[in-house]
Amino acid sequence: MDNSSPPPSLRQIAEAVGVSRMMVSRAFSPEASIRPEMRVEILKKAGEMGYKPDHMVSELMSSFAARKSVTYRETVAVIWCPVFWKEVENMNSYSHQTYQGLEKGAQHHGLKLEHIQITAELNPKALNRILKARGIQSIIITPSSQADIPAPELDWQDYSAVHIGSSFKDPPLHRSQVSHFYSMMLALEQIHQKGYRRPVLMLDMDFETRTHRAYSAAFMAWETGGEKRIFRSKIENASEKIGGLKKMNPDMIIGNKSQWHAFQEAHCPGVGFASMSRLIDDGTIAGILQPVALIAESAVDLVMASRLRKETGIPEIPKTLLHNGKWVEGSSLRSS
Question: Does 335 fall in a domain?
Answer without folding.
Answer: no
